[in-house]
Amino acid sequence: MRICVVRFPGICCLLVFFALCGNEAYGEMILDDGGTHTIDASNSPVDNGIKVYDAAGDVPTTLRVVDGGEVNAPTGAIEAIRLHDASVLDVTGGSIRGPDGSSTRSGGYAVHGLDNAVVNVSGGFLHGGDSGPDRPFGGQAMWANNDATVSITGGELQGGIGQSSGASAAWVGGGVAIRISNATLSGGESPLANDKLDGRALEVVIDAEARVYSGTFNGGDGMLAGFETTVSMYDGTVNARDEGLITNGNAVFSLFGGDINSVDHAVHAYGDSVFNIFGGSLNTTAIEIRAEDDSTVNIFGIDFNYPYGPIDDTSGTITGTLSDATVMAYGFLRDISASIYLREAPEPSTFVLLSVGILGLFVCIWRRRSLR
Fold first, then answer.
1. Contact 315/338 with Cβ under 8 angstroms?
2. What is the pLDDT of residues 116-154, one digit of tens each?
3. Contact (CB, 8 A) for 95 and 131
4. Sequential DSSP letters for 14-76
5. I want to staple 198 with a disulfide (CB 3.0 to 4.6 A). Which of 162, 220, 322, 370 is the partner?
6. Measured between alpha carbons, how far is 161 from 140 in angstroms, rounded to an integer?
7. What radius of gyration, in Å, describes the C-alpha atoms of the chain?
């Protein structure tokens, strides 16, 4: 029998549970009382998986992991922390380690949010589990699906190491909305010395929506947007050992700023996806832009060396000034079935003033609504 101490505000409570209950006999803690639970240095490490549910009457249960807190799921489990319903996880410090794999299981997630769960990470370290012997994949530090909401405003997320393929630091899909700033996301490495098998920093797939405001994103590839997703990147740094930003399916990716550093293509569009380039810097030792299949790449700016509209060439170099005033000279490769369009944008100074004006309008509308 295991005993774990979990503190409530002003209360110290002992939760007693058997190691053989639930989660495939790996032991787990169930939190479903609608209260607020805190894991800190005084009750760490917690060496069991934790599942968080709403209480009766749809009252959310909140779990907090703060400085000194430590959650380590046992080997062979599925995840360290799993959130259901509208439960809430606030990580401001400490560490959460996903379970390492076994002979029959790959590495597990550090945090798994689903249903309408809310995950807030502003500090700490989340690490996906490494794969077991002869198992191919590591585990993600963050896995969110089924309409969960994720906010990452700090801390570090690290994907697990796989025997053949490293895991992404964060994978979101299925109606999830995610916001990222001031954090570091790093994909797990593959031991096969092949950068194409290293994990991505961020994967956004299957009807999800992501906004990246800042941060550092390291991986084999930087980010992937696929299958009915929308991703907007405003700033941040991508350091990719293979490709920087990838779109597939009918995803839409809009790049407004940031530094994209890659060994292979900085932007690679597949399927019937759309990639919009308003700004940012593409830095690679290869050709910057690759458009395959039926994809479309739109480049917004002025003073291009090609006329506005579709580019007929299947390869070449585009020079000009992007909407954010970045002076560009980007090589491109285009399939016959793919499209690259040059779109006229306002002068960079006008673009900035217009953006500030639109932001001010939204602030005014928000303030008026909040005063009602």
1. no
2. 999 999 999 999 998 866 666 788 999 999 999 999 999
3. no
4. EEEE-TTSSGGGT-EEEE-SS-EEEE-GGG--B-SEEEE-PBTTTBPPEEEE-TT-EEEPPTT
5. 220
6. 10
7. 22
